[in-house]
Structures are given as C-alpha cells and as structure tokens.
Amino acid sequence: MNSSVTTLNCSQQEWELRVKLAQCYHLVDFFGWTETIFNHISARLPGEHAYYLVNPFGLNYSEVTPENLLKVDHTGNKVEPSAYDGNPAGFALHSAIHTAREDICCLIHTHTTPISAIVQKKQAFKYDSFYGAQLYGRIGYHAFEGITLFQDEKERMIQSLGDKHILVLRNHGIAVGESSIEKAFFLLWTVQRAAEIQCQADAMGGEDVPLADDIKEKCADLTAMLIRESGFATKFFDAMVRKMQSEK
C-alpha cells in the first residue's frame, strides 16, 4: 500500500490514515488475533465532523484495504457510498468512546482466547508479570450486558472506562484506545502478551512471585510515558509492518 497514492477523492491526511488503519487490520490478522469477520478497529478522522473509519462487515481483516474502509458518523451511518455495510455491534461501543473521549483517536476491540478467558474470571487481569505490571491502574471494567447493540448501554460503558485506555468487557473481551493507531496497536500487543503469560502461569500451578504496588505503578507510569512522549509505538508499529510484509 503506497501512502503517497490515493484513488479516492479524499485529502492526503485521510488517505494516510486509511493506509495505516488497513495495515493495523492486517497486523491483527498476521498475529492471529482476529475473530473471523467479527470485531472492529476504528480511527477517528481529523476535522469538525464526528466521522471515523471502520471495516466493512463481511470481509476478513486481510481483505480490508484503504479504499474499502467505511466512513461513518457517530451513529454508524455511512457518510459516503459503499457497497458494504458496517457491523452494528461495533457502533455502540466505538461511537460511544469516540464521542466521549477526544483523546482516543483509534479504538481496537478483540476477544482472543487468552483475553476472553481472563475477563471471564472474577479477578480478571493480574499485575505480577512484566506485561501485567504495565497495565496496573490502566483498566476499566464493564459488566456484561449481552451483545453491544443497544444505545442505552453507551453511557454505562463510558462510565466504566472513565479516564482509562483499556476497557475490559466482562465475559467478552477488551477494547483499547489511544491517540494514534500506532499507540493503540502497541497497547493491544501489551494486553495480549499479559493475557498469554497469565494463562500460561496459571496453568502451571504454584505460587506467583507478587510485585509490590509501587513497582507495578512505576512500570505502568513509565510505559504510559514512553508511549505518550516518544516515537516508541511508531517504531514498533513500523517494525511489525516490515516483519509482516517480509513474511508474505
């Protein structure tokens, strides 16, 4: 995908966002985090309108391209013609968070096996692994209300998220949101690694070595600072794109 060439009648800024979002979809597919044609990744477009880009429902993540991404408003209505429709289950979640949190420009929703297993547990995420510690104090929890189709759940999801960037959807999955696609992807990768390690450690039995709260807080704060104030997430994202493309 060439970020300098667009076949759409859109700004260069929008085209570059489309290219990066399509790459994010391909990365989630590359790492095996998809749920067939379900789940969603959205990116808010800059400008005065509350428009964002999201995947066409029915396509595999590997089939998402910059051109076929849907442009929708905060209610999920298409604002430009497309042969595809969106997934209505995504609009309640994504539109709620994009509308309420101006600092979140990209939102990724997954329910991989390790994540879904952990959020089904009463304790949910632990914070005693290297990656788990980086999530300390950064997660909001939302009780399961069924498939997220209904408008009346929006406000409760926003309240559950608060000022956090990770929303655990109990008995379901997670949503992670950040100020850019690169940052959101890195946060998702961190959550996924924490989940994988926690599942493996719990399966082994025996006692974990606990971390003190001040150490966990230090790890979480440092990671948040690195993502916020450096090009760390962009370097990671670009490296993963290169790795994916080299293995095709």
Helix and strand layout, with pairings?
Layout: H1 12-30, E1 40-44, E2 52-54, E3 70-72, H2 88-100, E4 106-110, H3 113-120, H4 130-133, E5 139-142, H5 154-161, E6 166-169, E7 173-178, H6 181-204, H7 213-229, H8 232-246
Parallel strand pairs: 5-6
Antiparallel strand pairs: 1-2, 1-4, 2-3, 4-7, 6-7
Helix pairs in contact: 1-8, 2-5, 3-6, 6-8
3D architecture notes:
This protein has helices at residues 12-30, 88-100, 113-120, 130-133, 154-161, 181-204, 213-229, 232-246, and strands at residues 40-44, 52-54, 70-72, 106-110, 139-142, 166-169, 173-178. By secondary structure, the protein is of the alpha+beta class. The protein is 44% helix and 12% strand. It has a single domain (12-247), classed as 3-Layer(aba) Sandwich (L-fuculose-1-phosphate Aldolase), CATH 3.40.225. A seven-stranded mixed β-sheet has the order 3-2-1-4-7-6-5, with helices on both faces.
List keywords for this structure.
8 helices; Aldolase_II/adducin_N_sf; Aldolase_II/adducin_N; globular; Aldolase-II_Adducin_sf; 7 strands; seven-stranded mixed β-sheet; 248 residues; alpha+beta; Class II aldolase; L-fuculose-1-phosphate Aldolase
Give a quick summary of the entry.
This protein has eight helices and seven strands, in the order αβββαβααβαββααα. The chain has helices at residues 12-30, 88-100, 113-120, 130-133, 154-161, 181-204, 213-229, 232-246; strands at residues 40-44, 52-54, 70-72, 106-110, 139-142, 166-169, 173-178.
